[in-house]
């Protein structure tokens, strides 16, 4: 096995980050709780927290989430992509979705490059997006942030330095510069989605204590949403 193949094989679990995020999606970040009909896709109609904005249902299988066991108090932002496997077309929706399935990770929502909002997991279930980490303001959430947060993935790619642990330089250099960072359409969609989520969850305050990046919760492991994410464009 040559060096590049070894790098690709050994880093795919990390790549599914965000959760990725980081397909940046990372492999299973906690034990999967088995339920009946694990192979079935979740029916979002049973979720009491129905989005009040236009979303496209792209529900993940039940094995990619579990019943939530804590109050929803936070939103966590991530980026995700398929740059490692397909740097020329890192945002192919089918391929990114397949990565979530393959590594049994998830988020509640994903925002496309043109501002499309995809609904992946009902909010009344815990998605596998945060993994291990700690929030200094909520230390009792240690390694259990999934139970208390809504995860939002944005189809995006960080800087070369941020991506190097998971995407070798020779692959990163094949990425179109227009595919790096975030789009204005994504910021607008994220702003609307956050406004909608906060209306339905008054326990989430609109401040940087309750709306956080994955890199703040797990700084040793994660870099998303990264230095290219402009918090001011969503009101911070």
End-to-end C-alpha gap: 47 Å
Helix content: 10-25%
Strand order of the largest sheet: 1-5-4-7-3-8
- Please work out how many helical segments DSSP would assign: 6
According to CATH, the fold-level topology is Lysozyme-like
Order of helices and strands: HEEEHEEEEHHHEH
Q: In total, how many domains does the architecture comprise?
A: 1
Enzyme class: hydrolase
EC number: 3.5.1.28
Pfam family, one: Amidase_2
Organism: Sutcliffiella tianshenii
List keywords for this structure.
236 residues, alpha/beta, Lysozyme-like, six-stranded mixed β-sheet, 6 helices, 22% helix, disordered N terminus, hydrolase, Amidase_domain, N-acetylmuramoyl-L-alanine amidase
Secondary structure blueprint with pairings:
Elements: H1 3-15, E1 56-57, E2 65-67, E3 74-80, H2 93-103, E4 109-111, E5 117-119, E6 125-127, E7 149-155, H3 160-163, H4 169-172, H5 184-200, E8 211-213, H6 214-217
Parallel strand pairs: 1-5, 3-7, 3-8, 4-7
Antiparallel strand pairs: 2-6, 4-5
Give an overview in words.
The termini are far apart. Mean pLDDT is 86; it is low at 1-15 and 20-39. The strands form 2 sheets. A 6-stranded mixed β-sheet has the order 1-5-4-7-3-8. It is built from 6 helices and 8 strands, in the order H-E-E-E-H-E-E-E-E-H-H-H-E-H. It has 236 residues and is an alpha/beta fold. It has one domain (3-28, 42-234): Lysozyme-like, CATH 3.40.80.10. It is globular, with a radius of gyration of 16 Å. Residues 1-17 form the signal peptide. This is N-acetylmuramoyl-L-alanine amidase. Keywords: Cell wall biogenesis/degradation, Hydrolase, Signal.
């Amino acid at each position: 096995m040559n060096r590049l193949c070894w790098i690709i094989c050994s880093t795919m679990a990390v790549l599914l980050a965000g959760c990725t995020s980081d397909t940046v999606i990372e492999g299973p970040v906690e034990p999967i709780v088995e339920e009946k009909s694990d192979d079935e896709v979740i029916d979002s109609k049973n979720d009491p927290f129905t989005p009040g904005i236009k979303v496209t249902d792209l529900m993940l299988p039940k094995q990619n989430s579990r019943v939530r066991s804590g109050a929803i108090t936070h939103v966590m932002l991530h980026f995700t992509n398929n740059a490692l496997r397909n740097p020329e077309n890192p945002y192919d929706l089918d391929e990114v979705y397949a990565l979530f399935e393959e590594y049994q990770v998830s988020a509640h929502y994903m925002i496309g490059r043109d501002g499309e909002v995809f609904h992946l997991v009902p909010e009344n279930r815990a998605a596998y997006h945060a993994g291990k980490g700690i929030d200094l303001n909520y230390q009792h959430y240690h390694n259990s942030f999934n139970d208390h947060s809504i995860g939002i993935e944005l189809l995006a790619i960080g800087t070369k330095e941020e991506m190097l642990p998971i995407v070798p330089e020779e692959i990163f250099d094949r990425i179109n510069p227009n595919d790096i960072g975030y789009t204005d359409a994504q910021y607008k969609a994220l702003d609307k989605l956050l406004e909608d989520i906060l209306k339905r969850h008054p326990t989430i305050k609109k401040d940087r204590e309750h709306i956080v990046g994955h890199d703040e919760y797990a700084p040793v492991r994660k870099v998303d949403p990264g230095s290219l994410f402009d918090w001011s464009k969503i009101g911070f």
